[in-house]
Amino acid sequence: MEEAPESYKNVTDVVNTCQAAGISNKVLKLRPIGVIKVMEVPEDDSDLLGKSVEQLNSDLAHRDAIIKGGLIDELAIRETVPVSEEDEVNEFIARSTALTRLKCVFFPNNAISDTTLSHAGQLAKGLPVLMGAGVGFTVGVVRAVTAYDQFVRSHQLTAWRTPEMAKRRAADYTLLRSMTFGISVGLKTTILATGCFTFPLIISACQGRTSFWEYAVGWGTSCFLFCINRGRRQMLVAGAVAAFPGLVYGCLNMVVSRTLRLTFEEMYHEQVRAIVHHRIQEEPPKLSEAVQ
């Protein structure tokens, strides 16, 4: 088989050099390269490419300078730009949904457990339960004393067969009354405390900001449910009556929160900053991705 001419080898070396240097296909689609498809290859490089090898090397050098300098947008090499922490925080806040904010408030991990919003969420989650249990237990004990006294007074003239039967009936009556009354009052206290403390924070987390009407909705809803066994009219009246002081308290709370910089937006921004800072410390390569 006949060996290819020296000019064809020079052109092939230029093409291989361009491809090895990582030059894009768009750059390689130049008119001189297309001439390679000609069936008859002349002996002189100037007839084939229109330029000599020295001129072609000079053009390639200028082309490399243009690519490295970024003078043409299509040929510019985009360098990796590290993303700052503040950009990560803003991106996290922009992509966060209501479910994400609720998880961050009420179910935070160890990295954000010391933030102000996490403390507020834990307090709003545990305080109604503690208040309901404490009030229910106290009321149940008091009711046990009054129920025993009531039983004794009601049956003081009753002739029991044995004293043991009388004691057992008194204990059953007292325990039933105290448990029923204590559980009922405890549940109602939990509902009221949830409407006063937890429900407004849930509304703030769902909408992503603090509003003045949150406490009006929370207080009105809790009083509406508190009177659930008293009829629909009493429930509506109780909800409407409780909504007005809740609205006043919500307006005052919003003014004070903005003054002390304790609105939901600012506390959530602080919490997200803690999340991003913890992520940077654990996974630095993932946070330095290139902005293409």
Automatic annotation (TrEMBL):
Instruction: Give the record's keywords alphabetically.
Output: GTP-binding, Ligase, Manganese, Membrane, Metal-binding, Nucleotide-binding, Transmembrane, Transmembrane helix
PANTHER family assigned: C3ORF1 PROTEIN-RELATED (PTHR13002), COMPLEX I ASSEMBLY FACTOR TIMMDC1, MITOCHONDRIAL (PTHR13002:SF1)
Q: How does it sit in the membrane?
A: Multi-pass membrane protein
Intracellular or extracellular location(s): Membrane
Q: What is its EC number?
A: 6.5.1.8
- What biological processes does GO assign it? mitochondrial respiratory chain complex I assembly; RNA processing
Task: List the cofactors.
Answer: Mn(2+)
Transmembrane intervals:
185-205, 235-256
Q: Which residues bind GMP?
A: 37
What are this entry's molecular-function GO terms? GTP binding; metal ion binding; RNA ligase (GTP) activity
Return the Pfam families for the record.
RtcB
Q: What name does the UniProt record give this protein?
A: Complex I assembly factor TIMMDC1, mitochondrial
Q: Which reaction does it catalyse?
A: a 3'-end 3'-phospho-ribonucleotide-RNA + a 5'-end dephospho-ribonucleoside-RNA + GTP = a ribonucleotidyl-ribonucleotide-RNA + GMP + diphosphate
GO CC term (a single one): membrane
What family name appears in the similarity comment? Belongs to the Tim17/Tim22/Tim23 family.
Q: Which InterPro entries match?
A: RtcB (IPR001233), RtcB-like_sf (IPR036025), TIMMDC1 (IPR055299)
